[in-house]
Amino acid sequence: AATGQGAALVPGDAVRAGDRVVTQEKTIVRLEIGSGSLYADGGTSFSVAPSGTIVLDRGRLCADLREPLREPVVISDTANNTMGIRQGRVEVGLQPVHALVGALQERKDAVAVPPEAKRDSALRLFVRVEEGEADLGGSRLQRLRAEAGRQGSFDWSGRPETAPLESSGIAPWRRPGFYE
Length: 180
Hints:
Blueprint: E1 20-22, E2 29-33, E3 36-40, E4 45-48, E5 54-58, E6 60-65, E7 73-76, E8 82-101, E9 118-137, E10 143-147, E11 150-154, E12 160-164
Parallel strand pairs: 5-7
Antiparallel strand pairs: 1-4, 2-3, 3-6, 4-5, 6-8, 7-8, 8-9, 9-10, 9-11, 11-12
């Protein structure tokens, strides 16, 4: 795999800790994991941490893991929220979340005047589970599981939440059978 050199991946290349993968628009990369695959959509970029965690900073991935893995595939956002996937068909990506933030500094000899709150946004992980399950781990040690037919996400503060899947089918950009 490319290690900062900007080399293209070719069939048979291994992606290892320290590697960064960036897909071009309208390109899909398939990585083999155990008896399954991890697909990176066009316009996706991630790096592989020394722990093996995939740190997603743009785009979306689809895990299609037929057999249970001994250790989960762990995907993280840049705020250290994580998704752990052992088996199933799961789409993971980034979505913008927003919050109003402000700070107040007080002094003993002055009247405290709060500043106007500012709108801040960040990218946080989301997951859509068609089969199997995904373990959501918030950056402040909160834990939640999204099972088949559910979706999960993180709010601005890193708190995980789940809900019923909003639509059927995941990763419509992945063409089943095309990559085998």
